[in-house]
Design goal:
Helix content is 22%, strand content 31%. With 169 residues, the protein is an alpha+beta fold. The chain has a single domain, classed as tt1808, chain A (Alpha-Beta Complex).
Length: 169
C-alpha cells in the first residue's frame, strides 16, 4: 500500500486545490463529491438556510475550511456559524452545526472521523444527509440518531428534509 507524501501546513494553505481538500496531519485528502445528487442537495440546503439566518442568528457557509488543530483542516459541505462569531477566512470558532452530505464511496469510518474532529473542537451538532436514500441523521457527541420524523434539529434550528430534497419527476 502506497503512502502519500506529507506536506507542511503552510504548503497546504498556500496551494490552490480544485476542489479544495481536507488536510489531516500532513496528508492532503480528497473529498468525495462531484455527483449531481450531492451538488443539488448542497445548493438546495444553502438556498433554504439563507433567508432563515436572521431569525435563527447564524450565517451559513458552503465549503469553507474549518481548522480543527494546527495540523488538521476539514471542509464541511455546509456550516452554520453563530451570527456573533467573528468572520474568519478559515473558520476557527466552532460552528453551531456542520453538515455533511453523503456521496457514493463515503464510508462510516470516514464520516465518524470527520464528526469526531468537529466534536473535538466544540461543534455541538452535525447533520448527515443521504440524498440517494432521502434521509438524514442528527449527530451529537456520543449519539447518532436517524431523523425519523424527517426533521434535522440543532436547538431552535429545524430543517425538514422534505423541503430540501429533490422531488422525483
Amino acid at each position: 500500500m502506497a503512502t502519500a507524501a506529507l506536506i507542511p501546513v503552510q504548503e497546504y494553505l498556500e496551494t490552490v486545490w480544485r476542489p479544495d481538500r481536507d488536510f489531516v496531519d500532513g496528508e492532503v485528502l480528497e473529498r468525495k463529491m462531484g455527483e449531481w445528487s450531492h451538488g443539488r442537495l448542497q445548493l438546495s440546503i444553502g438556498v433554504w438556510l439563507r433567508p432563515r439566518e436572521g431569525a435563527w442568528r447564524f450565517r451559513s457557509v458552503s465549503e469553507v475550511r474549518l481548522q480543527i488543530s494546527s495540523s488538521r483542516f476539514r471542509i464541511p459541505d455546509l456550516m452554520l456559524v453563530s451570527a456573533d462569531a467573528p468572520r474568519e477566512q478559515i473558520v476557527r470558532t466552532p460552528p453551531l452545526v456542520c453538515i455533511e452530505i453523503l456521496s457514493r464511496g463515503d464510508t462510516m469510518r470516514e464520516i465518524m472521523e470527520r464528526l469526531g474532529d468537529y466534536f473535538a473542537i466544540g461543534v455541538p451538532v452535525c447533520w448527515i444527509i443521504d440524498p440517494v436514500r432521502a434521509c438524514g441523521w442528527n449527530a451529537t457527541p456520543g449519539h447518532l440518531a436517524e431523523a425519523a420524523d424527517g426533521i434535522l434539529r440543532a436547538g431552535v434550528i429545524e430543517m425538514p428534509l422534505a423541503e430540501v430534497l429533490e422531488k422525483e419527476d
